[in-house]
Amino acid sequence: MFDTEPIWMFATVLGPVVLGAIIAYALLARRRLSPREKRERDAATRRLYDEESSKRS
């Protein structure tokens, strides 16, 4: 008969460790916007809001 205890130990111990490593990698690899990119993003957002408000008027 097959012993399932090692499988459960793997799932309960290593599962959360692997999940934590994946989350940590994603947070560390996330790219931040440069100041120029932030200004361009904000300007484009303002432009879109202005276009929407002019269509409603």
Extended strand count: 0
> What's the rounded overall pLDDT mean?
90
Question: SSE order, as H and E?
Answer: HH
Instruction: Outline the low-pLDDT stretches.
Output: none
Q: Supply the helix-strand structural class.
A: mainly alpha
Largest sheet: none
Transmembrane segments: 6-29
Protein name: Transmembrane protein
Region (Disordered): 35-57
Keywords: Membrane, Transmembrane, Transmembrane helix
Written account of the structure:
Keywords: Membrane, Transmembrane, Transmembrane helix. It comes from Mesorhizobium alhagi CCNWXJ12-2. Residues 35-57 are annotated as: Disordered. This is Transmembrane protein. With 57 residues, this protein is mostly helical. The protein has one domain. It is built from 2 helices and no strands. The protein has helices spanning 5-29, 35-56. The longest helix has 25 residues, at 5-29.
Secondary structure topology:
Elements lengths: L4 H25 L5 H22 L1
Give a nutshell description of this structure:
This is Transmembrane protein. The chain is mostly helical.
Task: Fill in the keyword field for this structure.
57 residues; mainly alpha
